[in-house]
Amino acid sequence: MTAAEDEVTTDVCVVGAGPAGLVLALLLVRSGVRVAVVEKSGSGQREFRGEILQPGAMALLDRLGVLAGARARGCHEHARFRLVEKDRVLLDIDYRALPAPHDHLLSIPQPHVLDELLLHCGKFEHFTHLDRHRVSELVREDGHVRGVRADGPGGRVTVRARVVVGADGRFSKVRRLAGIDAGRTEAFDLDVLWFKLHRPDGADGAEGQRERDVRVFRAGGSPVLAYDSFPDRIQLGWTLPHQGYRQVVARGLDHVKSELAAAAAPYADLIHEQITSLRDLSLLDVFSGRAERWAADGLLLIGDAAHTHSPIGAQGINLAVQDAVVAHPLLVGAVRTGDASRAALGAFEELRAPDIRRVAKLQAVQSTAMLSHGTFATRVRPKLASALRHTPVYRKILDAIAYGNRSIGVAEDLFLD
Questions:
Q1: Of 28, 167, 198, 307, which cross-links 21 as Cys (Cβ 3.0–4.6 Å)?
Q2: Residues whose CB falls within 8 Å of the CB of residue 154, separated by 6 or more in sequence, listed in order
Q3: How far apart are CA 376 and CA 383, in angstroms?
Q4: What is the SS3 assignment for 271?
């Protein structure tokens, strides 16, 4: 790792040190490609909501030798995903039906994963990490993107690169600077209010259950996602009608707490005790989006910068890691051949678009299952789901949720180490 300079020359400049950006950086440096990662936040200064790893992401991180170290920093395994209404389980997805060792969901603080990725990247002299640097403009030459300019603690730094990768999230600055429309759509008529509670001392998971579960509690029209968050927290996400938070909060903190307690009854006492201010709550504006294009001459968008999804189904990190794995050989090829044209880099969108469409459809189905009411949803569907568990169709659905596209694998033949 090198110190920030007035000018840095590299092969690939990755903007954004999230899962997509750092997995891609590690893949590239192991392939002999010079990489500079530009990140606006400092180490440990970001708050992350997404903590759930699906088996697909775990398998790829394991293949890269990153998962064990990240797990050693602390995590919780979750055996099932359950949709619960009062005392009735409406939907029960059992991850233990999958083959070991990735037969579970994993709640793990994102810094544990990101720090481990940075640790591995930092072993390579041709890796540069510019944290606390905000990208202010794209460097362009002859119509091609040739790098970025970023402002940091020591002043402005120009990073010159053959390819710039925007991995800077759903509000991507790189995408905006490139003049690419985000393609935002209001496919999900909900927002999510996130908050964390301290788990009572001595409790083995939520309510002392033997195996932890990721659960959605339904009460009225406001389901609540809940799971144990390492080391001793419970993370909850309260779904609200889109842009409906103002109406709820206008009635005051006590009203908000009463609504939350009713929606997540098992945690009512903790909510009343521990939520002391509206600042304890964080609102996530839920929307979907697909950028009008994912590539330009010298530029590639991956992860949420290219396609944004709902938190429903915990697919965000899975998609980010898979994007990086798919982009890896294309970028190695672009560096080695010198062809970083939109046509060459656009192959990434051709490869990933079918997977992204499938995930969007799956999330729409999951959203309907979570939010729908009536006799079919509460009485008939649970019986159908129970019967389905004993058929090959159940395994196919579970596989799609857990892995996405199973054919995506790390191009280890490109590694030089």
A1: 167
A2: 4
A3: 10
A4: helix
Residue 8 belongs to what H/E stretch? strand 7-9
Phi, psi of 115 (to 5 degrees): -65, -35
Contact call for residues 23 and 320 (beta carbons, < 8 A): yes
Tokens read off for 340: 């970083």
What is the number of alpha carbons within 13 Å of residue 203 lying toward its C-beta? 19
104 SS3 class: coil
Residue 10: how many CB atoms within 10 A of its CB?
A: 21
Strand ranges (DSSP E) for 31-118? 35-39, 52-53, 76-78, 80-85, 88-94, 105-107
pLDDT score of 137 = 97
Task: Please tell me which residue, 367 or 11, carries the higher pLDDT value.
Answer: 11
- Would you say residue 378 has pLDDT above 70? no
Per-residue pLDDT at 132 exceeds 60:
yes
Pick from 194, 207, 198: nearest CA to 274: 198
Instruction: Judge whether 28 and 10 are in contact, CB under 8 Å.
Output: no
pLDDT of residue 144 exceeding 80, the answer is: yes
Taking only the tens place, the pLDDT of each residue in 393-415 is 778 888 988 999 999 999 999 99
pLDDT band at 2 (very low <50, low <70, confident <90, very high): very low
Rounded CA-CA distance 197/360 in Å is 30
CB 85 within 8 A of CB 378: yes
- Rounded CA-CA distance 165/296 in Å is 10
Phi/psi at 314 (nearest 5 deg)?
50, 55
CA 374/CA 82 separation, integer angstroms: 18
Tokens of 90: 């409406």
Listing DSSP states for 162-202 in one string gives SEEEE-S-TT-HHHHHTT----EE--S-EEEEEEEEEPPTT
The pLDDT value recorded for residue 209 is 47
Q: φ, ψ for residue 196 (rounded to 5)?
A: -125, 145
Strands 184-185, 288-290: pairing kind: antiparallel
Instruction: State the pLDDT at residue 207.
Output: 45
CA distances from 309 to 16, 67, 303, 389 (A): 18, 24, 10, 27
Taking only the tens place, the pLDDT of each residue in 196-240 is 999 886 555 444 445 799 998 887 667 899 999 999 999 999 888
CA-based radius of gyration for the chain = 22
Residue reference for tokens 């920030």: 4
